[in-house]
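Case 251 in the screening queue. Each case pairs one protein sequence with one candidate compound; here the compound is fe (ii) ion. For every case the pipeline is the same: read the inputs, emit a complex structure as tokens, and attach any notable structural observations.

Predict complex for case 251.
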Amino acid sequence: MSTALVDLHCHILPGIDDGARDLDMSMALIRKELQDGAAGIVFTPHFHYERITVEKFVEQRKAAFRQVSAAVRAEGLPLAAKLGAEVFYSTALPSLDLRKLAFAGTNYILIEFPTTMQPPGIDETLYAIRAQGYTPILAHVERYPFVTEDPTLLYNWVSDGCLAQINATGLIRDGHTARWLHKLIEWNLVHLLSSDCHHPAKRPPNLKDGFDHLPPKVAAQMKKNAIRVYLGDEIDPPEPQLPKYRFGRWV
Ligand SMILES: [Fe+2]
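Case 251 output:
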């Protein structure tokens, strides 16, 4: 029996970020998620503290969620959904009201880093967030050049209690990223697979395809992890292994 899928990272809410433009697009994304076997979704619009206050963000997110919830009900779609955010990293995060940015009813908070350079203060900031009782989920860890250059950074964050999320797209597109992702998985440095979908054609929901590209055991574990995170339960991650640099490559 296949396990129900849960998408913990997506940009489905209408008109709030660079994801769905309008309600029609939101519903197209949701229908595809359901076709893929998704039973639950956390809506995670981008939050950038330098661009919007938490209060304003929460207000906009609520309005967008209302529209989607009404449309889901009207179509009678069997979907469980809750609110979250993809929080852009900043050393200011510990001073914000993280309760409003965490996945609703849980202590999980999705955080993304810039993809250009390693920002300052990551260790201290993640520590301060964890000290408030939250578990950071590091978004699409395959996308940061500073982590690819030195995966021991990720090892340290995971050893400290952070979880790591990867995008299905990286696994599906065979190539360098997929090979790298399989290494991260081997080192027990990945816990969650999500779609990060933005658009029905350009960045579509692809959870099922992503899971189909994982070894069955790993896929089963990650599906279970996503359900536990959705419910706010703790997950029991395997011991991370320290990547070692040998003969010019990470092994
Ligand atoms: Fe995202």
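Case 251 observations:
- Residues 54-75 form the longest helix (22 residues).
- Residues 9, 11, 86, 196 surround fe (ii) ion (CB under 6 Å).
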